[in-house]
């Protein structure tokens, strides 16, 4: 087993996540709200995502995504709109405020993601070069 590499990998991920959560806080968002905004904006479907789509992307239960969407809507970050074809579905879109907050965080995150990728590449390269003794 390569415990040293596994530890290094997980440590780098935790560092990034801790940094990301702090960045969200500085932007006036909880980490969950940041993730919700990202799930709405990053949705690749032909129309705005449903609450179910967001729940899948965030790996949370549907009712948790509903509560999160309600908080985001109350904060003025998203709008919930009934689907034109299926009135049982709610589609989520970013408001100008939500878009602004997400764009600010995204600009901060991109260099950090590049640094994380370089760190993880070094961890993987350590395997090819022998990586030192297992612990």
Keywords:
single chain; 135 residues; mainly alpha; Arc Repressor Mutant, subunit A; two-stranded antiparallel ribbon; 5 helices; 2 strands
Strand content: 5-15%
Give the low-pLDDT segments: 129-135
- In the CATH classification, which architecture applies? Orthogonal Bundle
Q: How confident is the prediction overall: mean pLDDT? A: 92
CATH class: Mainly Alpha
Report strand order across the widest sheet.
Answer: 1-2
Rg from alpha-carbon coordinates? 18 Å
Order of helices and strands: HHHHEEH
Overall number of strands: 2
Helical content (DSSP H or I, runs of 4+): 55-70%
Number of domains: 1
Structural class: mainly alpha
- Tally of DSSP helical segments: 5
User: What do we call the CATH topology?
Assistant: Arc Repressor Mutant, subunit A
N- and C-termini, Cα separation: 8 Å
Envelope shape: elongated
CATH superfamily: Winged helix-like DNA-binding domain superfamily/Winged helix DNA-binding domain
> How can the largest sheet be summarized?
2 strands, antiparallel
Please give a structural write-up:
It is a single chain. By secondary structure, the protein is mainly α. It has a single domain, classed as Arc Repressor Mutant, subunit A (Orthogonal Bundle). It contains 5 helices and 2 strands. The protein has a two-stranded antiparallel sheet with strand order 1-2. Strand 1 and strand 2 form a beta hairpin. Helix 2 packs across helix 5. The termini are close together. The C terminus is likely disordered.
């Amino acid at each position: 087993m390569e415990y040293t590499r596994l530890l290094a990998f997980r440590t780098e991920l935790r560092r990034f996540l801790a940094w990301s959560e702090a960045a969200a806080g500085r932007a006036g968002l909880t980490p969950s709200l940041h993730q919700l905004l990202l799930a709405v904006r990053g949705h690749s479907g032909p129309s705005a995502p449903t609450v179910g789509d967001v729940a899948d992307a965030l790996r949370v239960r549907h009712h948790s995504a509903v509560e999160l969407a309600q908080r985001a809507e109350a904060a003025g970050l998203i709008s919930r709109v009934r689907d034109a074809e299926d009135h049982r579905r709610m589609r989520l879109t970013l408001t100008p405020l939500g878009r602004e907050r997400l764009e600010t965080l995204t600009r901060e995150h991109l260099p950090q993601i590049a640094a994380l990728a370089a760190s993880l590449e070094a961890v993987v390269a350590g395997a090819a070069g022998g990586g030192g003794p297992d612990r």
